[in-house]
């Protein structure tokens, strides 16, 4: 250890000018063994394949998304319960009694009869609200613990492990000295708990915001409880510490343990260091500078004892002096009175016809940009961010709510909107959840608020990262376009890292001529494709056509290779067209009762507009058979395709006939259906009658067998003799063959052998009764 420490001092050339101190630290035990003697034992189980790992990762991601959604719904229900408690009349009465009369009169003065000017009324209302917030900050003391915080999956698992240790009596001392905040939030079981907090004038910042909302409602001000739902994130990397980008350097010339330590010291930042001397644990320690039994001071090294062989010298370890917060170290615990809250209040200004955000903890009035915790202005540097803004819901007095996330999120389009989707653009789930608490009717202030939120999204600043441009609702980069998208017209809004930025409204969706035909549109003559892409051959016929086109036989390949495309040296290209390059497809009309057909003998009817003029569509199964019997010209309607085993199978639904023959075909069809229904009913009745006959015959046979053999069969001891005697005819002699058995097995116990359960049984023969002969006279 002494050699190691000397190598450290010699190798740290950049730290020669530092001041050193020698401090005695008790040695925790024997020095560790050399690294060459350490044996690593790794699991020898089967290594999962790539597909298995992908399936496991997918299952884990699905579980995370499911937990995220379930947690979000539960937190929303909890917020609605708290919002309902804030409407309690007794709570309003107590808060009104606590509020100063001057604040109450200030709101009473803001009336149209007293102040006709709407702008002036708005300023007076905001001023009165600022005085009310200032009084509330002085009245209610915010505790540093108990507020809601955001947690990750790893945090929850660590908390569960800590509770398990506490139940076993371990880890309590370490938790007491760690200085961490209590993981449990503030317990508010009912509205009575809120009243107690209001009277005691102290509580968490969440309770403070909720009581302030109740106070505003008690003063007759329309107030909404705004909550930022702190659901567990579905992203795997959220909440984890970022890996350091600095890699340890390796000294090519150095060998041994000392050189590695010297290199590690050089990699550290140039901070002050302390020299700490480690003594043995069995040495006695005395107060006052670490006096030893030999009388030497703590700074004087003890002389080695020559008579007892080589004695271990106390090693020296260099410790750095702290210079404040460092990169990668644990952040400081934030002050709840200086960070972005989870609960706050929105009051409605009737003069301005808009909702005004209020933060009663920090004293902000009508400042909507101070609630996003991701902003550096709202989170002091070096402190831990305890909440995330993903879902912000405003709950009104009647229990209905609205999603007001675009009002407060700084980067709603770049980040928040993507997180709400839950991955891969599936945002419908959150819209369905909000649909359950949205007011079923509209108010004028709701329309005004929608316009305000829409303006906030349109005026959002341009993203500052490459990921923010992906799927952004306002801006787009050319690299993020999909295969079937193109920008038209090319109007640049700016540049990002040298790449032009375009408006998302300029993105045009393209399709092939075949796909446009399936939507009832066809490409206009003379229109050139706006984009050429590689032909995506999915079916076997498509692939065969592409191979023929690549082989230099475009005539054999036909139009299936690339309709409206060309064959290059590497791939077969096909053209994509915009909707403005297409027109509505108009098929040929019906002439003399003849329905137009395609090359396959049917008609394409993907949309209702593709129905020919003078034709009628009969979407009934079996209508083709009726039309064939009547001799009416018809065409089977192809309404789509099904892809199975790399082949496309047409979906045929109904027929298309001339409009003049529609009534005759329908009458014949319904008559045939009525006849078929009658046959089905008759067949069903015959089956039912046949089954009843079989059942009755079986019951008759069973009854005959019971009457013939029940009285002769041996009966068990437990009541069998009485039942047999009941069925035996009266006056019939009881022979020895007909007597019931008296030697039966006793009940109870366990039967170990099969012979104890199964007893031999033989049916009696037909015995003829012999009447006694009369005595001779």
Summarize the entry for a quick read.
Keywords: DNA damage, DNA repair, Nucleus. With 777 residues, this protein is of the alpha+beta class.
List keywords for this structure.
Rad4 beta-hairpin domain-containing protein; Coagulation Factor XIII, Chain A, domain 2; damaged DNA binding; 4-stranded mixed beta sheet; 777 residues; single-stranded DNA binding; BHD_2; 6-stranded antiparallel beta sheet; DNA_repair_Rad4; alpha+beta; 25 strands; 21 helices
Topology (elements, then pairings):
Layout: H1 2-11, E1 22-26, H2 50-85, H3 89-98, H4 101-109, H5 118-139, E2 141-142, H6 153-167, H7 172-178, H8 191-200, E3 202-203, H9 205-218, E4 223-229, H10 257-266, E5 273-279, E6 316-320, E7 343-349, E8 354-359, E9 364-365, E10 391-395, E11 401-403, H11 405-408, H12 412-420, H13 428-435, H14 444-458, H15 466-469, E12 475-477, E13 485-487, E14 492-496, E15 499-503, E16 507-509, H16 513-517, E17 521-523, E18 531-534, H17 540-550, H18 554-557, E19 566-567, E20 572-576, E21 582-584, E22 603-604, E23 615-618, H19 623-630, E24 634-644, E25 647-658, H20 662-709, H21 720-727
Task: Note the main sheet.
Answer: 6 strands, antiparallel
Tally of strands: 25
Number of helices: 21
Give the CATH class of the domain at 56-169 and 188-239 and 337-395 and 420-435. Alpha Beta
How does the helix and strand content classify structurally?
A: alpha+beta
CATH homologous superfamily of the domain at 56-169 and 188-239 and 337-395 and 420-435, by name?
Transglutaminase-like
Strand content: 5-15%
Helix content: 25-40%
Q: Unreliable segments (pLDDT under 50, ≥5 consecutive)?
A: 1-44, 171-183, 243-309, 555-562, 724-749
User: Outline, from the CA principal axes?
Assistant: extended
């Amino acid at each position: 250890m002494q050699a190691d420490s000397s190598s450290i001092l010699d190798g740290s050339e950049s730290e020669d000018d530092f001041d050193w101190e020698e401090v005695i630290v008790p040695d925790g035990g024997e020095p560790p063994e050399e690294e060459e003697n350490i044996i690593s034992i790794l699991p020898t189980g089967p290594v999962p394949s790539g597909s298995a790992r992908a399936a496991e990762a997918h299952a884990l991601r699905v579980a995370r998304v499911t937990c995220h959604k379930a947690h979000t719904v539960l937190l929303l229900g909890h917020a609605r319960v708290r919002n309902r408690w804030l409407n309690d009349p007794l709570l309003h009465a107590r808060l009104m009694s606590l509020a100063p009369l001057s604040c109450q009169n200030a709101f009473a003065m803001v009336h149209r009869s007293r102040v006709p000017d709407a702008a002036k009324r708005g300023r007076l209302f905001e001023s009165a609200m600022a005085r009310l917030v200032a009084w509330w900050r002085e009245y209610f003391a915010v505790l540093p613990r108990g507020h809601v915080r955001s947690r990750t999956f790893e945090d929850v698992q660590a908390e569960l492990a800590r509770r398990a240790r506490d139940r076993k009596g371990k880890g309590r001392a370490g938790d007491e000295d760690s200085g961490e905040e209590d993981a449990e939030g503030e317990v508010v079981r009912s509205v009575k708990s809120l009243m107690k907090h209001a009277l005691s004038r102290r509580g968490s910042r969440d309770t403070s915001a909720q009581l302030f909302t109740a106070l505003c409602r008690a003063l007759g001000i329309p107030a909404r409880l705004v909550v930022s739902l702190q659901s567990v994130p579905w992203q795997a990397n959220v909440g984890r510490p970022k890996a350091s980008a600095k890699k340890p350097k390796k000294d090519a010339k150095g060998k041994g343990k000392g050189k590695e330590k010297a290199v590690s010291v050089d990699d550290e930042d140039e901070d002050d260091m302390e020299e700490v001397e480690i003594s043995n644990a069995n040495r006695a320690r005395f107060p006052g500078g670490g006096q030893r039994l030999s009388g030497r001071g703590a700074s004087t090294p003890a002389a080695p004892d020559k008579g007892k062989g080589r004695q271990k010298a106390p090693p020296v370890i260099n410790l750095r002096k702290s210079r404040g917060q460092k990169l990668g170290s644990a952040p400081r615990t934030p002050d709840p009175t200086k960070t972005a809250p989870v609960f706050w209040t929105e009051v409605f200004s009737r003069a301005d016809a808009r909702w005004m955000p209020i933060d009663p903890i920090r004293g902000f009035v009508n400042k909507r940009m101070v609630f996003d915790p991701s902003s550096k202005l709202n989170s002091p540097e070096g402190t831990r961010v305890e909440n995330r803004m993903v879902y912000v819901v405003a709950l009104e007095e009647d229990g209905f709510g609205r999603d007001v996330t675009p009002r407060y999120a700084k980067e709603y389009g770049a980040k928040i909107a993507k997180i709400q989707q839950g991955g891969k653009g599936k945002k419908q789930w959150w819209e369905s959840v909000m649909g359950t608490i949205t007011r079923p009717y509209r108010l004028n202030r709701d329309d005004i608020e929608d316009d305000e939120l829409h303006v906030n999204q349109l005026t959002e600043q341009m993203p500052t990262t490459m990921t923010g441009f992906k799927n952004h609702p306002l801006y787009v980069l050319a690299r993020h376009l999909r295969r079937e998208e193109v920008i038209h017209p090319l109007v640049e809004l700016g540049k990002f890292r040298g790449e032009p930025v375009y408006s998302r409204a300029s993105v045009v969706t393209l399709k092939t001529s075949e796909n446009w035909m399936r939507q009832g549109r066809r490409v206009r003559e003379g229109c050139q494709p706006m984009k050429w892409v590689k032909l995506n051959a999915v079916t076997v016929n498509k692939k065969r056509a592409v191979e023929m086109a690549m082989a230099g036989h475009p005539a054999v390949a036909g139009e299936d290779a690339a309709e409206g495309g060309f064959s290059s040296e590497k791939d077969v290209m096909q053209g994509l067209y915009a909707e403005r390059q297409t027109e509505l497809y108009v098929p040929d009309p019906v002439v003399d009762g003849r329905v137009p057909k395609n090359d396959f003998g049917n008609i394409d009817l993907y949309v209702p507009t593709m129905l020919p003029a003078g034709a009628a569509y009969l979407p009934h199964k079996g209508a083709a058979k009726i039309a064939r019997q009547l001799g009416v010209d018809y065409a089977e309607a192809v309404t789509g395709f099904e892809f199975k085993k790399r082949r496309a199978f047409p979906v045929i639904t109904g027929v298309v006939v001339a409009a003049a023959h529609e009534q005759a075909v329908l009458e014949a069809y319904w008559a045939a259906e009525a006849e078929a229904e009658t046959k089905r009913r008759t067949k069903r009745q015959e089956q039912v009658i046949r089954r009843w006959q079989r059942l009755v015959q079986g019951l008759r046979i069973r009854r005959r067998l019971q009457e013939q053999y029940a009285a002769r069969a041996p009966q068990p001891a437990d009541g069998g003799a009485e039942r047999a005697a009941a069925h035996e005819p009266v006056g019939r002699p009881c022979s020895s063959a007909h007597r019931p058995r008296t030697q039966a097995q006793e009940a109870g116990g366990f039967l170990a052998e099969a012979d104890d359960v199964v007893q031999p049984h033989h049916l009696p023969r037909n015995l003829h009764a012999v009447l006694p002969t009369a005595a001779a006279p």
